[in-house]
Amino acid sequence: MPHENFNDLAAFAAVAQERSFTRAAAKMGVSQSALSQTIRVLEERLGLRLLTRTTRSVAPTEAGERLFQTIGPRFREIEAQLADLSALRDKPAGKVRITAGEHPALSILQPALKHFLPDHPDVSVELVVDYGLTDIVAQGYDAGVRMGRQVAKDMVAVRIGPDMRMAVVGSPKYFKNRSLPQSPHDLMEHNCINVRLPTYGGIFPWDLEKDGQEVNVRVEGQLVFNTLALRVQSALDGLGIAYLPEGAVVSHIKAKRLTRVLEEWCPMFSGYHLYYPSRKHTPALSLLIDRLRYRGKQD
């Protein structure tokens, strides 16, 4: 693709984000008329109208919104990477405060910190495990970790893990005298291990999907926890069926300590992302972001 095409896309992303030609033009350092002409050329080349313009507002069309959702995160990531490189000119030091759920804390952050901290003795990390959708700005965190679909659009997000999915599991002991569930409805006949998350104000529903059909099942059972480890152990102990991140139980499934059910109802979804409110951040956070950045299976 010619370089000018990238410039056109950057111009469109700026207008779509700002919802204003005036603000986007000021942000890019170009005239409003030049920016408008750039967008017209892009629309003509694509054969699609990308923006709906009125005398008072600018908004993406359906095609424009789809394009913005695709390219917007890419441009933000490039900008964040450039900011990261600039920050490396300074000596990394100081504290980085991060909030994350238990699963990403154990499966992604802790393994990375094991190698990161010895290489950077002047950096300290405070990691707070929290299942709520924490307001990191209000709570004074430098960054947080969420699944991609949960990251607010005004945050800079960096992928730190692969796509993932959930797993519905129970032990052979539990299923010894019970039939395996064949559909989400069958879970209502089972003793299910639930989780209570503060953000949802109650019991977390099991989100299942197959062939475009989404089912949110509110299961019942004798146990409710707010930690991952207790749910895994209770499933291993035969106390019920649990709905858990696949990575937390894959070794138990392979060893046949747990039996997986309803696998076809557990599709892949966007994995964990580190998110933060500004492209300007400390050198210490810059280095940690670079260490955590997910680069594919080769890593």
Automatic annotation (TrEMBL):
GO terms assigned for molecular function: DNA-binding transcription factor activity; sequence-specific DNA binding
Family, per entry = Belongs to the LysR transcriptional regulatory family.
The record's listing under Pfam families reads: HTH_1, LysR_substrate
The alphabetized list of GO BP terms reads: DNA-templated transcription
Describe the location of the HTH lysR-type domain by residue ranges.
4-61
Q: The organism's lineage? A: Bacteria, Pseudomonadati, Pseudomonadota, Alphaproteobacteria, Acetobacterales
**Record-linked InterPro entries:** LysR-type_TF_proteobact-type, LysR_HTH_N, LysR_subst-bd, WH-like_DNA-bd_sf, WH_DNA-bd_sf
List the keywords (alphabetical): DNA-binding, Transcription, Transcription regulation
Q: Is Transcription included in the keywords of this UniProt record? A: yes
Q: What is this protein called?
A: LysR family transcriptional regulator
